[in-house]
Design a protein that fits this description.
By secondary structure, this protein is of the alpha+beta class. It has a domain at 91-218: Alpha-Beta Plaits (2-Layer Sandwich). The protein has 3 helices and 4 strands, in the order βαββααβ. It has helices spanning 112-134, 178-186, 190-196, and strands at residues 91-102, 138-153, 156-169, 211-218. The protein has a 4-stranded antiparallel beta sheet with strand order 2-3-1-4. It is elongated and about 50 Å long.
């Protein structure tokens, strides 16, 4: 009962590797494999190119780099002051103030176009008047507006027209004095002007067509 037998021992060198035997897997040699997710490459920076970066600026020419005048440079415009032309030989210079009362305007004032149309009729009127006064010695009359002003009085407009005048006479004629010419202008019948000349004033609908009163006074030498 006490006899024993010896079983063969497990020679680890002649049997298959046991569960404890391990093999060594090849390591990840980073020099032979593709770069991993952690491996990065360096992209060229903005400074690696010759194109200007966002911070790079170029200097534009200033206003002083050109010969053109700057916004601060000013030039002197010719004065608007009126000059008096010399009176031509054989002519007489006078001046007058024409006052007109216009009805049914209801606050409207004359425009420059309407004043220009009025002066066409003023010149026609005085050419006719002075022809009757001086006869064949008379050649022409020209009135030029120097100033105008208008005021509203209820349904009426009062217009005041200052004008300089040149009355020209024929060669060889006896030239009247300034006082004589001035008096002939002031003696003109302005009711005839209202009735026979103002209805033809242009443009159509001109405010001066409704003139009901007119007067003139000399401003010669004033």
């Amino acid at each position: 009962m006490m006899e024993t037998t010896t079983a063969p021992t497990m020679d680890v060198t002649t049997i298959a590797p046991t569960m404890m035997e391990t093999t060594t897997a090849p390591t990840m040699d980073v020099t032979t494999i593709a770069p991993t997710m952690m491996e990065t490459t360096t992209a060229p920076t903005m400074g690696d190119t010759t194109a200007p970066t966002m911070m790079e600026t170029t200097t534009a020419p200033t206003m002083g780099d050109t010969t053109a005048p700057t916004m601060m440079e000013t030039t002197s415009a010719p004065s608007m002051a009126a000059t008096t032309a010399p009176t031509p030989p054989g002519s007489v210079a006078t001046s007058s103030l024409l006052n007109l009362v216009i009805s049914q305007t209801f606050g409207r004032l004359p425009t420059q176009t309407e004043i220009d149309g009025l002066m066409v009729q003023v010149n026609q009127f005085y050419n006719d008047v002075l022809t009757n006064v001086f006869g064949a010695d008379f050649m022409s009359f020209t009135a030029t507006v120097t100033d105008s002003n208008s005021n509203v009085a209820g349904p009426f407009t009062i217009a005041m027209i200052n004008h300089d005048d040149v009355t020209t006479f024929a060669d060889g004629a006896t030239i009247p004095s300034q006082a004589e010419v001035d008096q002939a202008i002031q003696d003109a019948d302005l009711s005839s002007f209202i009735q026979n000349y103002l209805p033809s004033v242009l443009p159509e609908g001109n405010i001066f067509m409704n003139t009901i009163m007119a007067s003139s006074s000399s401003t010669t030498g004033g």
